[in-house]
Automatic annotation (TrEMBL):
Cofactors named for this entry: Zn(2+)
Gene3D superfamilies per UniProt: Ribonuclease Z/Hydroxyacylglutathione hydrolase-like (3.60.15.10)
Protein name (record): beta-lactamase
NCBIfam families on file: bla_class_B_core, bla_subclass_B3
Limits of the Metallo-beta-lactamase domain: 61-249
Stated family: Belongs to the metallo-beta-lactamase superfamily. Class-B beta-lactamase family.
Gene that specifies this protein: bla
Pfam annotation, one family: Lactamase_B
Enzyme Commission number: 3.5.2.6
Length: 299
């Protein structure tokens, strides 16, 4: 009886221990995750001349191009959201006042390239031109990305001119032609224009990223034709007028931005596409292998 009493007396204690341990097992919800990038993506550079009218004004490892014309200037990409003030001061250093900036063009709607476009638009006279696919990402500030979901957010911005493939933006004596090259995003774009360098006319091509970082390439319900899109884009890029290739991530086209903009190795548009195609194929092979292994486990 005494024993039984003892057992009965233990029960509430055991219940409370269980309850306490259940409570203490609750862990805090995770911190919000900032989009963190390497320091050189955020390290400003002074204006670096690429060609007579074309300047790199972004950071050491993210391209933001300013093209000066007789009728004002055009910005193509801006890097990370925190680059806005730096871009404006680099423009000022090149005698481009905010009211002289007429157009903002861009490569694709991710935070590391379109980040400061809203701030630059607000601070200047510029209008933004983009295609329908990229406009959706810009309007949502990067939310709902096909591959990153809400992982790469930036201040949202509305587009003033919706571009069709092959459309041209003319400012002063410079004509910018857009080429749709879906893959890295469905709205990815390349831009081409003419400039001069060392007394020679040159065709400049600013071609979007061709990577698929962590993307599901096979059976992706959000982007079923991603691989076919990439392959069509590789063909288009190989055929672009391209004396001088620039890319949002400069190393992809052989550039380093330091005291000067240096082209350490000259990468042609067709070589850029060929390299990207090889890397994509390796990624596809790996994903096919993983699918085979999963299927084998079910056999
Ligand atoms: Zn991207």
């Amino acid at each position: 009886m005494r024993r039984l009493k003892h057992r009965v007396g233990l029960l509430p204690l055991l219940v409370s221990v269980f309850f306490l341990s259940a409570v203490s097992a609750e862990t805090a919800l995770p911190q919000l995750q900032a989009y963190e990038v390497p320091a050189d993506w955020r390290t400003p550079v002074k204006p670096l001349q690429i060609a007579d009218q074309t300047w790199q004004i972004g950071s050491k490892s993210l391209t933001a191009l300013l093209v000066k014309t007789g009728n004002g200037a055009v910005l193509i990409d801006g890097g990370m959201p925190q680059m806005a003030e730096h871009l404006l001061s680099n423009m000022q250093a090149l005698d481009v006042a905010p009211e002289d900036l007429k157009w903002i063009l861009h490569s694709h709607g991710h935070a590391d390239h379109a980040g400061p476009l809203a701030a630059i638009k607000n601070a200047s006279a510029a209008r933004i031109a983009s295609n329908a696919e990229s406009s959706r990402l810009l309007a949502r500030g990067g939310a709902g990305d096909l591959h990153f979901d809400d992982g790469l957010l930036f201040p949202s911005v509305s587009v003033d001119r919706y571009l069709q493939d092959g459309e041209q933006i003319v400012l002063g004596e410079v004509t910018f032609t857009v080429h749709f090259i879906p893959g890295h995003t469905p709205g990815s774009m390349a831009w081409t224009w003419r400039d001069s360098l060392n007394g020679q006319e040159i065709d400049i091509a600013y071609v979007d990223s061709l990577t698929a970082p962590g993307y599901q390439l096979i059976g992706n319900v959000r982007y079923p034709n991603i691989v076919a899109d990439f392959h069509r884009s590789f063909d288009r890029i190989s055929a672009l007028p391209c004396d001088l290739l620039l890319t949002p991530h400069p190393h992809a086209s052989g550039w380093t931005y330091g005291d000067k903009a240096l082209r350490k190795k000259s990468v042609s548009c067709s070589k850029y596409a060929e390299n990207a195609q090889r890397v994509l194929q390796e990624q596809l092979n790996k994903q096919e292998q993983q699918i085979r292994e999963i299927n084998d486990n079910f056999d």
